[in-house]
Amino acid sequence: MDLNAYTRTISTLFSTNVKYVVPRFQREYSWTKDEVSELWQDVINNLKLKDGKIENLEYFIGSLVLIGEDKSPELLIVDGQQRLTTITILLSALVETFRSIGENDLAQGIYSTYIEGKDVRFKPFFKLENENPKPFLQESIQHITKKNNQPQNKEEKTLWESYLFFINKFKIESLKKDINFWNEISGKQNEKQLAILESIRDQILLNLKVIYITVANEDDAYMIFETLNARGKNLSSVDLIKNDIFKILNGTHPDDTAKRTWKKIQLNLSSRAGKVNFETFFRHFWLSKYNFITESKIYKNFKIESNKNSFNHYDFLKDLSEEAETYNKIANPLKTDWLDQNDLVVYNSLNALSLFQITQIRTFILALIKKRNERLIHHADFCKVLNEMEKFHFKYSAICSLKMNIFEGKYSKTARDLRKCTNKAQSTVVINQLLQFYAEKEPAIEVFKQRLEELKFTNQYTRDKKLIQYIFSKIENFYRHTEELTLNKISLEHIDSQSNANGNFGYLGNLLPLDKLLNEQCGDKDFKDKLTIYKQSDLRIVQEFLNNYGFETDWNENNQKKWFDYISDIAYNKAWKLEL
């Protein structure tokens, strides 16, 4: 391998007419406020005041690995993308700040020398080129005349947050806080600001140094890329796997299929309100289809699988894309995903499981939906296992908060067993084995009631509100033999008003589901007056309440206990009874 290494300053890098290109296998820009703040502190900590003048100290910021000859007009960035991008953002923010304070020559000096270059035909180009966030990075950050584009995805938002970070840091108010020798600099505030901004410019351009390494070809670059990140300190398993896939699927004409598909997966996972972490999805996908392993071993396991003759990188990427779409429907269910009336129970179960915030189940549900799409599972089995999963995890997880560590391996194995099924009969056997496992692990009613009694809702304590709404809506649906009432259609009424209540005010024994308008009418009225309003409700659970307490003259602790016992009994033994 031919490799050349030099010490270079940022000025040396960017002052020549070389284009630094972020290649297709690189991950997105991902520096958060923590990393950006660390760079900022490194910059300002190396500014010193001596004899009334600001001096700059040299500072080493690591290596920069590039593909191409040392004198090439275009170099691909293998390692150092995050640092170069952040430095470009900082310089762009410095340009904008100089313009805002009327120092247009200083702004143009940075822009024309270090951000924009000219080719032999005198056509402009950006010295740092990245196609992924195009045109947001180019139009809203790099260009001297910026467009007011709104960031549309996670990478664009991260880029914009870094840019705003520096814009704010360059303001007088921030510099006064961050520069410890501010008061010792002579001159007016705007003069001090200008002196410090010029020193920051010089610190970045002339005193930040890198080890500049060039390699001749892409194969050497991939090898260095993996070696630099082999221990996973800089890149996640998914980043390394992406690197491997792009290395094999390296065709870019007439279309870069690998890059387009990967981008599609990213957009899919971030397309709904509850954005899905790529690494979380990938691990659940891997556990669902390949092996049960820890996050730290996924890349090593991928290398083993991908070296098998039966492994096809294109098919793997296509499969990953399809299951990312399914995963999003599991993690962020929408009614539009399940338009068939027979699938309403599926949506309600997925929605409940999402409310319970259980992620381990997704490994199995990925395989379950895969088999449904392949028509290798009975529709009745499909609906039943999701319904029983909801009922079991309501008791086990949402209420009792019992340990989930035994389920990750169980769901992984069951998912892989289900994927191996070649007919509906085999699928039924696998599902029944899981249901039997639920029966063995179901918590006792005493534990269930003890934990259920801890649920609470007041205006000041709302953590359990959605779960309590879910409980009442599920009981109501049990009475009606339907799945139509959803938790957002009911509000929670405190039977005994807070002004009159004892210590049980916010707990389940003092709560009743009501239509929002009826709840507002109740206000702080006495119990007897509230009963008249309750009678206007068409909810079956309210009618049950009236049948038991409609003739009471007041609402006391004894009644609260009886009402809680009634709710907990119907919950454990009827509405969420496992039917295995």
Automatic annotation (TrEMBL):
It holds the Pfam family GmrSD_C. Residues 453-561 form the GmrSD restriction endonucleases C-terminal domain. It comes from the Bacteria. Residues 10-246 form the GmrSD restriction endonucleases N-terminal domain. InterPro entries: GmrSD_C (IPR011089), GmrSD_N (IPR004919). This is DUF262 domain-containing protein. It comes from Flavobacterium frigidarium.
